[in-house]
Known about the structure:
By secondary structure, this protein is an alpha+beta fold.
Amino acid sequence: MQPRCTLIHAVAVVAAAAAAALLLPPLAAGQPWPTCDTSAGTYKAGSAYESNLRDLAAALRADAAASPSALFATGNRGGAPDAVYGLLLCRGDLSVSDCFDCGTRVLADVGRVCGGRHGRAKDVALVYNQCYARFSNKGDFLAATDNAGGETLLISGTNITGGAGVVAAYDRAVTELLAATVRYAVEENPARLFATGQRVGDDARDPGFRNIYSMAQCSPDLPPASCRRCLDGVLARWWQVFPLNGEGARVAGARCYLRSELGVGPFYTGAPMVVLRADKMDRQWMYADRRSKEFIDGVHYFLRVAEANRQRGFICCPCNKCKNQKEYSASRTIHFHLFESGFMPSYNCWTSHGEQGVEMEEDEVEDDNIPDFAQYVGFEGNQTGEEEIAADGNDVADDLGQMLQDARGDCESEKEAHKLDKMLEDHRTSLYPGCEQGHKKLDTTL
């Protein structure tokens, strides 16, 4: 099944023809939005395949509703050439009864959609606002860890107006919100792999758009790392397949699902799990007095964005000393550095933290003349106790430190490991308090 882009009355177009998709009208209200692939074969009404298909749809409905912690089920019915494989995933915020109801709609629709004079498609995906279902005569998609088996792309509208600047700001806001929602789903809700989000704007800052809502979800049988790769892949392709002025869009697949919508209210139930505020997105605060409330609040907002864009579990530090050349696993270390020495010059475009193409405003100033935070709170240096990591992933100290780290992994006894730990400690410890940087206990011993 090839990725397809559904825009109106369940009409599907190949996603590669994204340029043509920009000219089509928005998504209609009718559900489901099916994606049909006859290349896998067709079946006739009353056939053994249809009987197996309906039996499987009923079983998936019951199984998904019987697992309130997952709202998810997979299965198969029959043998070749009439074997059917299927998956049902309900939206993670639904009740068991709502999930069952959506499964009932799947059962009613699966036998009537995707029909034609040559028969009904064996490979079909059904997208609803409350659930996603996939059926095929091949079970490869159940073993996959991504949406390689097929995706349905939906566009809700293309009405963002106000010029290129407004559209660009909207695109950045959507990307930022989706990235934060993906991170939350994987890292904060790994059992269900589901998250909802909201970006709260205001009319003055965001003419043409205000509240944006989001959702990220994976099938809960995926490992979190696979879920993250699947969702990151979808997000990386987002603006390649969707129009830049789209009010809303979603990518629905058997393994992961990502959605954003502009509107007066959320499309999910309950409070959003992730909230981003537009009043923290004005970058002038970055070079304000570091004692000011706007700087303090802004740093907290920046760290949430940075958390959403971790690389290999680490975050680049954009402080005026590290300049994105060092990485840390703990955000509190970066928090400390930013208050101690401020942001590096002209870092209004957070290129090391998931952004592209944002330029510094002309009226923004840098804080070269503002006293260091350490000078008025009474501390200096890295007091977090965390080991520094270079941006290329290596220990900042030097090759000797790396050699000791490697040897530590080859230790065959606790005694040997303890000796290596002591050497590593000496390698990181200054010869005496106030000693010139670079002179360590182990260096002097050697």
